[in-house]
C-alpha cells in the first residue's frame, strides 16, 4: 500500500523535512552511544531519539495521514507519550544496575550510597 | 461513585486512549472502551496504590511547557556535544541535591522529567535524607543545576501534589 504519491507537493516537503529531521536526531543520539566515554555518559545520548527524534517522526506521520485522509489524526501522539514516559524507567534501571556494579567493585569515581557514608569516608 | 469507579482519572484516561486508538467516538466504541476502562481500573485496586491527591491542576500546563522547552534545548546541547566533542573540556559528573518534595508521585514525575531530558539522568533517590543523585553530562556549575531543577520543576510539582 503506497499512499505517498497521493500527497500534494507542499505536504510531501513538510513530511519529508519532519521525518528526515527526526531520523537525523535519532542517528546523532545513536552515534553518541558509540562515541561518548563512560557508561553514565552513554546513557544520556539515546534520549535524543526518544524525545525530539520521536516527536519529529510522529509529527511527520500525523501530517502525512491527516492530509491523505483529509481529517486531523492525533492518535500518534499516544506513541510519543508512551515512548517518552517509559524510556526513563528503563534508563533508570540500567543506571542503578551500573551504579550497583561500580559500588560493589569499589570504584572510587562513583558516589557512595548516601551523604553520611561520604562524610564518614572523608573523616578517615 | 467511588465504589463503582475506584480510579476515575485512570478510567477516564483509558477510555480516552481507547477512543483515540480506534479513532472513533461512536456509541459502540464508547460502551466497549468504558467497559475496558472500568475493568482495568478495577484491577488497579488490587494493587492498592497510595491515593493520588492533586491539590491543584493549574500549574500542569506551565510544567508541561517548561519540560518541552527544556527537552528541545537539551537535545540541541547534547547533539552538539556528540558532534563536536573537541570544542571544549567537558566534565560530566554526579550531583547530589536535597529536595523538599515529599509526595511519592511528585518524586516519580520529577524522576521521569529529569531522565527524559537528554543530558540529565536520575540515578538514585534516598528516602532517608530526601536527597537525590543526578548524573549530568555537561556539568559546569553544580549549584546552578540544583537551583534550576528546584526552581523549574520542584516548585511546580509541590504546587500540584502537596
- Tally of separate domains of chain B: 2
Q: What order do the helices and strands of chain B follow?
A: HHHEHEEH
Largest interface, and how many residues on either side?
Answer: A-B, 39 and 36 residues
Fraction of residues in H or I helices of chain A: over 70%
Order of helices and strands of chain A: HHHHH
- Helix/strand/pairing category of chain B: mainly alpha
What's the overall geometry of chain A?
elongated
Instruction: Please state the structural category of chain A.
Output: mainly alpha
User: In terms of per-residue confidence, which ranges of chain A show pLDDT below 50 for 5 or more consecutive residues?
Assistant: none
Number of strands of chain B: 3
> How many structural domains can be distinguished in the coordinates of chain A?
1
Q: Strand portion of chain A, in percent? A: under 5%
Shape of chain B: globular
Ranges of chain B where pLDDT stays below 50 over 5 or more residues in a row are none
Q: Radius of gyration of chain B in whole Å, from Cα? A: 20 Å
Amino acid at each position: 500500500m503506497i499512499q505517498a504519491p497521493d500527497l500534494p507537493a507542499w505536504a510531501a516537503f513538510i513530511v519529508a523535512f519532519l521525518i528526515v529531521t527526526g531520523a537525523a536526531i535519532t542517528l546523532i543520539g545513536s552515534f553518541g552511544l558509540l562515541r561518548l566515554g563512560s557508561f553514565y555518559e552513554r546513557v544520556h545520548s539515546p534520549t535524543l531519539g526518544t524525545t525530539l527524534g520521536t516527536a519529529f517522526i510522529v509529527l511527520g506521520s500525523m501530517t502525512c495521514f491527516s492530509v491523505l485522509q483529509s481529517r486531523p489524526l492525533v492518535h500518534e501522539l499516544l506513541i510519543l507519550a508512551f515512548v517518552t514516559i517509559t524510556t526513563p524507567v528503563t534508563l533508570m534501571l540500567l543506571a542503578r544496575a551500573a551504579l550497583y556494579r561500580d559500588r560493589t567493585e569499589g570504584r572510587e569515581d562513583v558516589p557512595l550510597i548516601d551523604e553520611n557514608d561520604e562524610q564518614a569516608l572523608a573523616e578517615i | 461513585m467511588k465504589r463503582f469507579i475506584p480510579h476515575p482519572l485512570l478510567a477516564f484516561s483509558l477510555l480516552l486512549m481507547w477512543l483515540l486508538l480506534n479513532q472513533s467516538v461512536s456509541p459502540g466504541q464508547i460502551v466497549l472502551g468504558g467497559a475496558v476502562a472500568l475493568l482495568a481500573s478495577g484491577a488497579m485496586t488490587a494493587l492498592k496504590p497510595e491515593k493520588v491527591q492533586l491539590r491543584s491542576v493549574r500549574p500542569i500546563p506551565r510544567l508541561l511547557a517548561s519540560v518541552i522547552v527544556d527537552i528541545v534545548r537539551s537535545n540541541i546541547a547534547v547533539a552538539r556535544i556528540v558532534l563536536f566533542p573537541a570544542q571544549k573540556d567537558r566534565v560530566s559528573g554526579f550531583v547530589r541535591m536535597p529536595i523538599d518534595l515529599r509526595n511519592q508521585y511528585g518524586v516519580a514525575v520529577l524522576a521521569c522529567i529529569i531522565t527524559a531530558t537528554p543530558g540529565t539522568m536520575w540515578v538514585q533517590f534516598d528516602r532517608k535524607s530526601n536527597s537525590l543523585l543526578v548524573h549530568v553530562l555537561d556539568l559546569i556549575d553544580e549549584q546552578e543545576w540544583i537551583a534550576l531543577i528546584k526552581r523549574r520543576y520542584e516548585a511546580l510539582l509541590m504546587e500540584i501534589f502537596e
